[in-house]
Write a structure and sequence with these properties.
Elements lengths: L1 H27 L3 H17 L3 H31 L2 H25 L18 H16 L5 H21 L5 H25 L13 H26 L5 H26 L5
Helix pairs in contact: 1-7, 2-8, 2-9, 3-5, 3-6, 4-5, 4-7, 5-6, 5-7, 6-7, 6-9, 7-9, 8-9
């Protein structure tokens, strides 16, 4: 009974993550106006990338190896200290599931209808690079001791945000692709929480209070900014004008908001699991 109660928040988290993923896909991939808004941010990245493009290019080239190698080294070091092999297996399983499902969703299940916005381009949602970075951060977060999870959440979210934003700057992905990639990892993180709630006995330590309210506030401000940018982009499109900088800034703000809010919520969900 107690295991069921502990698993319930994670179940809700998985359902909400899946629902938000579906909403992002339906709005920004399946609808005409959603494609327009996403494409404005995509074009804005090309127009306003400036010197950031060099960092994005270098970061993305190193990302796959860095995520696997650095994540693996940190994970193994934590496991050797904490001896939490069960959590290690669940965490790796969640990371593998997130990355495999990302590729299956993008190339097999989801499609991008042609609506005259970006003719000929295939579906690119969700972002694989974002999923790799976020899943590596998830493994470290799950393995970390409860008192270190807030730090792991902050560092991991910044890493995932940098990866996602870089794919936009490099014009490999649109903002919706990045947000969707983070939501896929969040979904698998919640599934891992369900499994650990049933299999893993909570430690004797008291629940760890969330120390990530600054992330929530920054995420909330960015979320409001992204909504304002979305509305401005929508009405400018209706009027036949373009505000590429606004759309680009709104896309980046949406990525930051998603990364920080998911990190804060994940930290709170896991506060009772050792």
């Amino acid at each position: 009974m107690r295991s069921s109660l502990r698993a319930l928040p994670f179940l809700w988290g998985a359902l909400v993550s899946a629902a938000l993923f579906a909403a992002v896909y339906l709005i920004f991939v399946r609808s005409y106006i959603g494609q327009i808004i996403d494409e404005r941010a995509f074009a804005g990245a090309d127009a306003w990338k400036g010197a950031v493009i060099e960092f994005a290019h270098t970061f993305l080239n190193a990302l796959p190896v860095a995520s696997v190698v650095i994540g693996a080294v940190i994970a193994v070091a934590i496991v050797l200290v904490r001896r939490n092999w069960l959590v290690f297996g669940v965490a790796v399983g969640a990371a593998v599931g997130a990355n495999v499902s990302t590729q299956v969703l993008k190339y097999t299940i989801l499609s991008r209808p042609e609506k005259g916005v970006d003719v000929g381009l295939s579906n690119s949602l969700p972002s694989g690079h974002t999923a790799v970075a976020a899943s590596a951060a998830l493994v470290v977060f799950l393995l970390a001791a409860p008192k270190f999870r807030p730090l792991a959440a902050v560092v991991g979210s910044v890493f995932a945000i940098a990866a996602g934003a870089s794919t936009l700057v490099e014009q490999w992905h649109r903002p919706s692709d990045v947000v969707a990639g983070m939501l896929v990892v969040a979904f698998w993180g919640c599934l891992a929480g369900i499994v650990l709630s049933w299999l893993h006995v909570p430690g004797a330590e008291p629940p760890v209070r969330s120390r990530l309210w600054p992330l929530v506030w920054v995420g909330a401000v960015c979320l409001v900014g992204s909504i304002v940018a979305l509305v401005v982009t929508y009405f400018s499109t209706e009027a036949g004008t373009e505000h590429l900088l606004v759309a680009y800034a709104g896309g980046v703000a949406a990525i930051v908001a998603t990364g920080f809010v998911l990190a804060a919520l994940g930290n709170r969900l896991y506060r009772r699991l050792a």
